[in-house]
Design brief:
This protein starts with a strand and ends in a 13-residue tail after the last strand. A 4-stranded antiparallel β-sheet has the order 2-3-1-4. It contains 3 helices and 4 strands. By secondary structure, it is of the alpha+beta class. Protoporphyrin IX containing FE binds next to strand 1, helix 1, strand 3, helix 3 and strand 4. The site of protoporphyrin IX containing FE has 23 residues, from strand 1, helix 1, strand 3, helix 3 and strand 4. Keywords: Monooxygenase, Oxidoreductase. This is Antibiotic biosynthesis monooxygenase. GO terms for molecular function: monooxygenase activity. Pfam families: ABM.
C-alpha cells in the first residue's frame, strides 16, 4: 500500500499569494521521481489556516530517495530560478500516513 507525506505549512495571511505563486512556478521535478504517485497543494478554507502539501508515494524508500535528491534542488531555487527567496511559510511540520484503504470512482461501463 502507498504512503502519504503531508507538509503542513503555516502561512501568514499576507504571504498566501506569494506561496501560491511559488508553487505555480515550482520545479515540476517531483513528477519524474521514482515511486511518486500524487501531489496536491491544498489551500485552507475552513477549520484550519494551514496549507497542506499532499504527496503520495509507492513506498517510504521512494520518498526518502526524493528527499535526499530532487527535493533539495526543488527547494533551493526560487520558483522562477532567481536566488532563494525569503520563505513564504513561517513554519512547517511533516505528517506521515500509511494508506489503509482507498477507493476510486467506478468506471462508467462497470455498472
Ligand atoms: C521547510 C520546509 C518546507 C518549506 C517551507 C517548503 C516550501 C515549498 C515551496 C515554497 C515550494 C514551491 C517551489 C519553490 O518555491 O521553488 C515547494 C515545493 C514543493 N514542496 Fe516543499 N517545502 C518544505 C518541505 C517540504 C517537504 C518535507 C515536502 C514533502 C511532502 C515538500 C513537498 C514539496 C513538493 C512535492 C514540491 C513541488 C516540487 C516540484 O515541483 O518538483 N516540501 N516547497
Amino acid at each position: 500500500m502507498s504512503i502519504v507525506k503531508i507538509n503542513v505549512l503555516q502561512v501568514p495571511v499576507e504571504q498566501r499569494e506569494v506561496l501560491e505563486k511559488r508553487f505555480a512556478s515550482r520545479a515540476g521535478s517531483v513528477e519524474n521521481s521514482d515511486g511518486f504517485e500524487w501531489f496536491e497543494l491544498l489551500r485552507p478554507v475552513e477549520g484550519t489556516d494551514q496549507y497542506l502539501v499532499y504527496t503520495r508515494w509507492r513506498s517510504e524508500a521512494d520518498f526518502q530517495a526524493w528527499m535526499e535528491g530532487p527535493m533539495k534542488a526543488a527547494h533551493q531555487r526560487g520558483g522562477d530560478g532567481s536566488p532563494q527567496q525569503k520563505p513564504a511559510a513561517s513554519g512547517s511540520t511533516l505528517w506521515s500516513f500509511e494508506v489503509v484503504q482507498q477507493a476510486a470512482p467506478k468506471a462508467a461501463d462497470s455498472e
